[in-house]
Amino acid sequence: MRVLVSGGAGYIGSHTVVHLVAAGHDVVIVDSFANSKPAVIGRLEALTGRHLPVHAFDLTDRDKTERLFGDESFDAVVHFAGLKAVGESARIPLDYYENNLDATFSLVRAMRRHGVKLLVFSSSATVYGEQAPLPYREDYAPLQSSSPYGRTKVMIEQVLTDVAAADPSMRFALLRYFNPVGTHPSGTIGEDPQDIPNNLMPFLAQVAVGRRDKLIVFGDDYPTDDGTCERDYIHVEDLAAGHVAALGRLTTTNSPVSVWNLGTGRGTSVLELVHAFERAVGRELPYEIGPRRPGDLPRSWADPGRAHAELGWSTTKSVDDMCADTWRWQSANPMGYEG
Ligand code: UFG
């Protein structure tokens, strides 16, 4: 299929581009480069052995989006583009609602005008909110989230569900990611946050490479085995394979909307991840225990059973693989793409 990948230069988008090409798809990237680096494209072309057409604009620009769909034909869209920092979303909520919703409206309008039926959307486990029982299952309701970022995901899931109800010929996949970490095993593409990393794995990687003094562990008094929060870390390579499987399933399913958790089904604590990363690096890493971070849930993990059954997909990589690959990328690219 000819697949438009929005946000294809970003962390998860770039890894998924490699998997889509390997599965035989023709990929076209649209990315504003607001939160990604143009240098990733050359790395992707080297990895895939393909020329990858890139359109550098923001999907909130409806005229440009419409022109792209008028000039080229696509069979499917995989939609990653969006703002994604939880803390920032509480400081500039309007930017998050405007950007994430407008980009999706613009994209789905263009799809509908040009007869493109298949869309894979990046949702998040954050839509389960604070009340959902573990493990998180796709049929849990009502969806809610504790941050404006998370609420954009809840809203977009709702918008897409309404669009599909009005036009049952559409096929939408809502993929609820747990905690994506790791990099392509080549170490040539990876996660390259713009400022101070918000997330645990990129922060740890920057401590290991000497860009940060130490990790602050946000609280060790949670009701978990070692007192630190537990998360379902999923290797970005497994996550990328999940997108290819979901896209394939959209071509055969009769359901206008499909929802799949992409996680391993296992929780790992902050301290367990720190120690796994220490094993990958081969030395101890400096950390200290700090206060809790507002909004963090003690524990989060998926029931990935539906994705296993319906996509024939399951994760293959361990937490040690996640750390080894992240360290290969970070040590080869200490300052990221522009280092
Ligand atoms: N943590 C630290 N120190 C840090 C960074 C993180 O101790 O410097 C801890 C957090 O407190 C948490 C765990 O590491 O316990 C994981 O934190 P991340 O920020 O890596 O991941 P989150 O689970 O908070 O965030 C993820 C996704 C978001 C999503 C959110 C919803 O990255 O997109 O889950 O729960 F919205």
Polypeptide structure, described:
- The protein has 339 residues and is of the alpha/beta class.
- The chain has two domains: 2-182 and 233-264, 3-Layer(aba) Sandwich (Rossmann fold), CATH 3.40.50.720; 200-231 and 266-301 and 317-338, Alpha-Beta Complex (UDP-galactose 4-epimerase, domain 1), CATH 3.90.25.10.
- 40% of the residues lie in helices and 16% in strands.
- Strands 3-2-1-4-5-6-11 form a seven-stranded parallel sheet, sandwiched between helices. Strands 7-10 form a two-stranded parallel ribbon.
- The longest helix is centred in the first third of the chain and has 21 residues, at 93-113.
- It is globular.
- The mean pLDDT is 97.
- Bound molecules: uridine-5'-diphosphate-4-deoxy-4-fluoro-alpha-D-galactose.
- Uridine-5'-diphosphate-4-deoxy-4-fluoro-alpha-D-galactose (UFG) is lined by residues 84, 86, 124-126, 149-150, 179, 198-200, 203, 215-218, 229, 231, 270, 293, 296, 300.
Helix-strand blueprint:
Blueprint (H helix, E strand, L loop, with lengths): L1 E5 L4 H12 L3 E5 L8 H10 L5 E2 L6 H10 L4 E4 L6 H6 L1 H21 L4 E7 L23 H19 L4 E7 L1 E3 L18 H9 L6 E4 L11 E2 L1 E3 H15 L6 E6 L5 E2 H12 L5 E4 L14 H7 L7 H14 L7
Parallel strand pairs: 1-2, 1-4, 2-3, 4-5, 5-6, 6-11, 7-10, 8-13
Antiparallel strand pairs: 9-12
Helix pairs in contact: 1-2, 1-8, 3-5, 5-6, 7-9, 7-11, 9-11
This protein binds uridine-5'-diphosphate-4-deoxy-4-fluoro-alpha-D-galactose.
